[in-house]
Specification:
The chain is of the alpha+beta class. Helix content is 50%, strand content 14%. It is built from 13 helices and nine strands.
């Protein structure tokens, strides 16, 4: 990014660059969720409408929608951290609701949901990483129901060990699980996190690349890999990974968002602007791309455009947005020009 001159002071410019780079680090950790819906017999339930409603503080109502796949799975990325309510609906089944809280960064595994047929009871299973994803086709031929339950319990125990600060135990469990079900992406992601935590960069990268290999059609897999590459200082590799992934997910605003943030950090202003504009087009309610676009406009000495983007950011951003204070300070300064 070039240093501006004339209309915008160097102090203002440096504030914009600093704030936007701080935002870039957080954007790469945008929240995502993954879960599954089953019927009362424990079978995956495809075609369920999943509506995700944000219950945190926001100036506008935020609702995201998706549908479960043939294995009853659903995934959604680019969510604000905080409280959410998930609504599950399907003809012939009782509507089910789940309240949850999502943390910033990585993928949150949501407890499996059981939908009762009309006239029956409905319940929500409470285990992290429930059995169903492993019990599906990815478990492979010859894997019994009892073995699938055992593998699911192993994954649940591994996640619990990670949360309890027992990475060695988690690593053992995850490797045992992967040996039986090598195509189970969440296990590769979790193992990558464990290995990264102990400083095994090469091992972590191998697991994240395996995640992309076994789950190539999920954008979050590519985002996880790119985020890891960014955290170890390999921004060019992260940018290349996102460039390769972007054509596969033309309607995914978060992929464009992450691509723009990575390009921004590398000083690739044209690529960053194109990606952020696409992100805004795909998700007009998303605030953060507007902050980046405002920062890019500042670097180009286009005060009018910068003010427009920053005002848009302020109007859309929730109270806990990472760059809200910086945007307001920039607007105050720019409007004096």
């Amino acid at each position: 990014m070039k240093r501006p001159s004339g209309l915008v002071s160097s102090a203002v410019f440096l504030l914009a660059v600093f704030a936007a780079r701080e935002s870039a680090a957080q954007l790469n950790n945008a929240a995502a969720v993954r879960g599954q819906v089953k019927d009362e017999q424990g079978q995956p339930l495809a075609g369920v409408n999943v509506e995700l409603e944000f219950k945190g503080e926001s100036r506008v109502k935020i609702v995201k929608k998706t549908t479960t796949d043939k294995r009853g799975g659903y995934i959604y990325s680019g969510l604000l951290p905080g409280a959410w309510t998930f609504h599950f609906t399907k003809a012939g089944y009782k509507t089910t609701q789940l309240n949850t809280s999502i943390s910033l960064g990585g993928i949150s595994d949501i407890e499996a949901v059981t939908m009762a047929a009309s006239g029956g009871d409905s319940s929500v299973a409470g285990a992290i990483g429930a059995a169903a994803p492993i019990a599906g086709p990815s478990a492979g031929p010859g894997v019994s129901a009892d073995k699938s339950k055992e593998l699911a319990a192993k994954y649940t125990a591994a996640i619990a060990a990670m949360k309890a600060g027992q990475p060695a135990e988690a690593e053992t469990l995850l490797k045992e699980l992967i040996a039986v079900v090598p195509g189970f992406g969440p296990a590769h992601q979790a193992l990558g996190s464990v290995l990264a935590g102990r400083g095994d960069t090469a091992g972590a990268e191998a697991e994240y690349r395996k995640l992309v290999e076994v789950d190539p059609d999920t954008s979050v897999s590519h985002l996880v890999l790119a985020n890891f590459l960014t955290t170890v200082g390999r921004n060019e590799d992260a940018f290349k990974a996102l460039q390769d992934a972007a054509p596969k997910f033309p309607q995914d605003a978060l992929v464009q968002f992450a691509l723009g943030a990575t390009a921004f950090n590398l000083g690739k202003s044209d690529e960053a602007e194109a990606a952020f504009l696409k992100a805004v087009e795909l998700d007009p309610a998303s605030a953060e791309p507007n902050f980046y676009l405002g920062s890019l406009a500042i670097s180009a000495n286009d005060v009018k455009k910068a003010v427009g983007y920053l005002e848009k950011y302020v109007s859309l951003a929730p109270a806990n947005a990472p760059n809200l204070a910086a945007a307001k300070a920039l607007l105050e300064t720019l409007k004096k020009k």
